[in-house]
Amino acid sequence: MPPVQLSELQTALCIVFLLVAPLALAGIALMSTGLGRSRNAAHSMLAALCVIAVAACTYFFIGTALQGSGDRAGFVIWLGGKPWSVAGKGHFMLMGLPLNAAPAVLVAWLGILSAALAGLIPLGSGADRWRLPAICASTALLSGITFPLFAHWSWGGGWLAQLGANYGLGIGYLDAGGAGAIHVLGGFTALSLTWLLGARRGKYTSDGMPMAIPGHNAVFVLFGALLALVGWLGLNGAGAMLFAGVEPARLPLVALNTLLCAAGAAWAGALTTRIRYTKPDASLTANGWTGGLAASSACCAFIAPAAALIVGFVAGALVAFSVELLDLRLDVDDPGGSVSVHALGGVWGLLAVGLFGRMEAGGPGQLLAQAVGIATLLGFILPVTWGLNWLLNRAVPGRVSAEGEHQGMDLYELGAGAYPEFVTHADEFMR
Question: How many helices (H) and strands (E) does the chain have?
């Protein structure tokens, strides 16, 4: 990534945005917990804390170097007489960087938060059956390898960002807030883990029909969605300045587009479920809201407010239909809806940059650049993520035993439940 030049006002605003960004992590953690069973609630929240801790440490030790920083050139290969940066050559453990508000330090700060958020996304898909040691190990792989590698390609001046200069595809792959680097990558990790872990016991009948296993706390889910909005405003604002060169005068547009994407998606989720099921569904509406936020991460700095509302509405409808499709037709047991919300929402947001973006060098070339980024996530990141977690599963089995799943992860792995004064076991889900 070329050196970022920030004014004093931009630096101050970026620090404020990064201070509120952790609310996105809290929101996603609450949503994953609320959408799981009550007997796994404490385990889910502890897993979220562990994910954040592991992601922060691993990214600090390894990821900062692999993603790269603005004061060092990356590892470059030459193709067709043009340089293509494939990996960063940054600072391990931030050594050599001035420990102040330098742009490279702000990028590392945002990188830690982004790696943690990407690591939290698979928790929703692995809910009720994913063991804590495997969660920590999988997070280390994500934050130390796949996330910083793709972040370099898209944010660190890597080959995706160079598509404009080298091939004339718009101004290169654009993703101001991390729809690809965070959400699609995290969503594809979630998809890989649903395949590897398998469905929860009792989820599917002998003839393959899915059984409803409702989340235990809709208030957690809805409150988490509200917290996520505040955190997203911080993530999108900081990313827009650091990776898209947005001036302070355009930050209100970034915030407005983020809010409108979420609002349109919530409306679409509520209307879609009202039409299909006669009553609006709280969890699908909240997931639609979050899918709109995921879509906004790509396009918040590049589209008009009216387009943001359309992007959000489409994202919310896609999430509502995708959750049912994955559950009913593809036998993907995703309790938190992570694949639909983050992977599908993020992909739609990346496409929206090319469809609705208002860049000086946009047009069909920009849409193609976005498509190349999506193809890279699907054709490279997804297989690599699945392969790494498949190997990990051989060494550290991820699926809890039948006894542990029946007893609940709280008691089985932690020795105490989240709600000791209430009955948290319901055997009808285990038949």
Answer: 19, 2
Q: For 29-59, how does the pLDDT look when each residue is reduced to its tens digit (9 = 90+)?
A: 999 999 999 999 999 999 999 999 999 999 9
Residue 3: inside a domain: no
Structure tokens at 232: 């997203």
Q: How many domains does the chain have?
A: 1
Instruction: Name the residue range of residue 115's domain.
Output: 8-430
Domain-located, residue 398: yes
Q: Which of 64, 27, 50 is nearest to 233 (CA)?
A: 27
Residue 2, domain member (yes or no): no
The reported pLDDT for the residue numbered 4 is 61
CA 275, 321, 33, 342 torsion-angle sign: negative
Which DSSP string do the residues of 191-213 spell out, in sequence order? HHHHHHH-PPTTSB-TTSPBPP-
Question: What's the pLDDT tens digit per position in 174-207?
Answer: 999 999 999 999 999 999 999 999 999 989 988 8
Query: Could you tell me the CATH number of the domain that includes residue 120?
Result: 1.10.3430.10
Domain-embedded: residue 1: no
pLDDT score for 71:
55
Alpha carbons 31 and 29: distance in angstroms, whole number: 5
Q: Report residues of the chain scoring pLDDT below 70.
A: 1-4, 69-73, 360-362, 423-431
The answer to whether 103 touches 7, Cβ cutoff 8 Å, is no
CA atoms within 13 A on the CB side of 204: 16
Separation CA 64–CA 85 (nearest Å): 16
- Using alpha carbons, select from 374, 381, 380, 378 the residue that is nearest to residue 174: 374
| pLDDT score recorded for residue 91 | 79
- What is the predicted pLDDT for the residue at 401? 95
pTM tops 0.90: yes
DSSP 66-87: HH--TTS--EEEEETTEEEEEE
Q: State the pLDDT at residue 1.
A: 42
C-alpha–C-alpha distance, residues 390 and 395, integer Å: 9
| Angle separating helix axes 305-328 and 251-277, nearest 10 degrees | 40
Within 127-250, residue ranges assigned H as helices are 132-141, 147-154, 163-167, 185-197, 218-244
Q: Nearest 5°: CA angle at 160, between 300 and 264?
A: 20
